[in-house]
Amino acid sequence: MRDLLLGVRLSIAAGRPGWLRLAMIAAGVGLGVAMLLLVASVPTASGNREQRRSDRGLTHITDKGGLLVRTIESRFHDQAVRGRMVRADGPGAPVPPGLPRLPAPGEMFVSPALAELLAGPGGDVLGARWSARVAGSIAPPGLAGPREVYVYVGSGDLAGGENTVRISSFGGRPAGTVRVEFLLLAVVGAVVMLMPVLIFLITAVRFGSSARERQLAAIRLVGADGRMTHRIAAGDSLVGAVLGLGLGALMFLAVRPLAGELLPADFVPFTSDLSPAPASAALIAVFVPVAAVAVTLAALRQVVIEPLGVVRQAGGKRRRLWWRLMPPAIGAALFVPLLGGDRAGASFGQVAIGVALLLIGVVVLLPWLVPAVVRRLGGSGVAWQLAVRRLQLDSDTAVRAVSGIAVSVAGIIAFQSILNASVTANLAAQPPGGRFAAVVFSDSADTNGWAEALGGVEGVREVGRTAYGRLRIEGPEQSQAGVRVGDCDVLRQAAALPSCADGDIFAVRMPGSGESPLSPGTAVQLYDFAGDKALSRPTVPANITTVTRYSNIKLGGWEYLATPKAVGMEASLRGLNQDGLLVSVDAGDPDAIERVRNVTTRLAPAATVEVFGDRRVADQFVGAAQAAQAGAVLLLLFIGASLLVSSVEQLRERRRLLAMLTAFGTPRRVLSMSLLYQSAIPAVLGLALAVSVGSGLSAALLAATNGPIEFDEAAIAGLTATAIAVVLAVTAAGLPLLFRFTRVQELRTE
Amino acid sequence: MVMPVQTDGSSPAEPLLHADALVKSYGVTRALDGASLRVRAGEVVALTGPSGSGKSTLMHCLSGIIPPDEGQVSFAGRNLADLSDQERSALRRQSFGFVFQFGQLVPELTCLENVALPLRLDGVRRAKAARRAAELLARLEVADVADKRPGQASGGQGQRVAIARAMIGDPQVIFADEPTGALDTRNGERVMHLLIGAAKERGAAVVLVTHEPRIARYADREAVVRDGRVREARTGRYEMGAVR
Q1: Residues A749, B101: C-beta atoms closer than 8 Å
Q2: Conformational region of residue B135, where left means phi above 0, alpha means psi within -120 to 50, and beta covers everything else
Q3: Which residue has the higher pLDDT, B241 or A135?
Q4: A291 Cβ contact partners less than 8 Å away, ≥ 6 residues apart
Q5: Testing the interface with A: which of B93, B121, B173 to mutate, by most A Cβ within 10 A?
Q6: Closest residue of A to B117, CA-based?
Q7: Could you tell me which residues come within 8 angstroms of residue A621 by beta carbon, excluding any fewer than 6 positions away?
Q8: Is A203 within 8 Å of A405 (Cβ atoms)?
Q9: Do B93 and A664 touch (CB under 8 A)?
Q10: Spatial distance between the Cα atoms of A486 and A463, rounded to a whole number of angstroms
Q11: A582-599 tens-digit pLDDT
Q12: pLDDT above 70 for B12
């Protein structure tokens, strides 16, 4: 304990150079701690968000009295607008969380984000949707996040029935499903973020270690033994770690409000929600000082501190490969059940562990790979020879810094590939915008008079009809399939058609379906949707064309797309269930679709309007990809900083040698190039490993999501180029110091 | 490009290296205060004096490593101040050799590669440079450490490797700054014998910085540096083979 305290005292009372070293360590550790606290806050923020959503859940159903609630799912341009229409049915009606009272008929309470939309351009069109005036705003307890667009509308005539629930109180966990891609992205993201942070922490703790070792040698001279010097070093590193913890906590509090803003609007948390759980915070508070001491003691095992100086032990250390192959091999094995798209054979946990092990594989393989390769490298120029020999003697420092780059690049390649595949899949699932801009789905409401109502909306040019029926082969088995009927342009919104004319019919087969229930060339009976009323008797052509449906329209098995003439119907489609109306709008009127939504809400509040060529979801993925790219650049800069710290450390340690080399005429160019090669050789090897593991990981993850295996070559090239630029920048940043150390004054000993 | 000097035809009285009234300050400390020195081809000159007297600074000025604030240094009739940094670097590579107290060998290179380094910097092919380095290591009786790294050699062996490196370019002047400072008496004597012997063999001058009178006796001439000035002290009595 006395030695530990001596280390603390030495660290604090070390004068200006000591203070500078302490400040650098504290800044580095602080940066790492701030990142750790942010990552540790994600589960809390997500949990709080779910809790808020749960608090307004509609699970406490009652038979009478209480509150009648109908869920509102709407949009305003690119923004999702959600909420509830409510009516109290008696005195004991519950008040939703975040509201001071229930809205009276003709009143609405809006979230701050919705209030902003109402006050912004086109806000009057949105305001007209519910025919209610704003009575107040929804407080944070009633919102999932500060950017949520939410509304409670008071209704005077809401009655029980379809799409309406009667509740005695709010609360209960809503049934929510998270897309597997998001979960995978979260796992990859966490590993990618944490690994470089840990590596940076290790580098930061070791900043100025050679000065500390010289100081320890001086203490050995006055009688300290080896164990004492280790305890003194531990005390010294504790000071930097504890200061870093404090600084990191302050940095975290400072960046917390900004960090949430980097997320897509729907996921922005309340600043107060972005806090680590007490257990996580305590873990970080314990982990960082313990890790600092462990790193210091591990580093001291590489040197012998003698009273007259420090002797470094290096070289000759052969690293074993077999155990380093275990994590990636086990990780790859965990993905085997997923190959071929058999997702049922693997759990999410299995995938997450597989991802983590493959990424950890990069970190453990690199310290074997770099020495194994540099051992075989021959010499050419003097600069190359100096760098290669240096790496042969000690590649640990360079590998430590480069493994940060490698794991980030591997993870980000996997991340980008999943995002890219999601964007492609989502765009492929979207009907293109054409003659029609949107479809209004009636959601079982009677559509009588809807075409006229929608046709009268300002900005609407045309209303098309589509209907649904059944084709059935009469007989004992009664094989049947659904048929959507509409003109060619209407059908083109359901599937990409090679060519189309009135009288054509197409078969749509969904993946996993067996043989068509309606054999080509057979006569079938067309029924209405309920299957009660026979309408006509068409024939399924023998040479019927099979097409692929845009997949966001749900159906199973086989379906048919038919023009009216193909199934013997008139253009009015009378007799069939007219479940949707397609609208074409004036392209120069951005609010036309919003007015269609307003009218639709009035016709049937539960009806939905689906806009064709909607890039909204794809744009979210593109936005996430851009955020990931920006994050990757930031991460690489972060890693560049740790590379620079290592490089500066090494230069300081070799200052006399550099001065001597200059004294006998070594050109600075040779020394500069040697410095570059020393960073570039491990970096190139690290990047090669990272691109291999990252691409393999992408392929496995895409197989897990049943997506086509495609790599985002542009992102890989961009990332690799950025990593190379970081290496060059680090070398350039080290040059002034190199030039300073090559001044021959460094040879002076007096 | 620095022209090599023809020592054969030069007059013994004509200095190869000439420092005239050098002044050099580090901050408020005046390290040299009008120091002058002449070194003839093949001559061994010991710079002695108390610690902090300016010996090393004088040696650094003489070798063109640092420029004096005042005065001038000329080598083979050329003022070093007229040379560019590149030309001075080439001069140090091609005409000078250096031996420092701790050898200052590059730790990651083998002893053979360390010796070959100056030739490699001059563009000599690897195999040829290695052959020449091996010959020198054998001449200095350290052929057995050729493939070892400096850390695996003893202090005395390391200094002999450093001498070989200083010799490999057939320099006209060898600058040795406390070359035996880190060695015991026996090893120190051995290193000095080899250094002076090899220099004499090649007709190279030696500028030797030392504070040990015993080492200064190896010089033809001793120049005592005190308060930044040079005072000639005595001529040496060293005979090859006298110390073994």
Answers
A1: yes
A2: alpha
A3: A135
A4: A198, A201, A202, A205, A241
A5: B121
A6: A382
A7: A419, A422, A423, A426
A8: no
A9: yes
A10: 12
A11: 888 887 887 888 888 888
A12: no
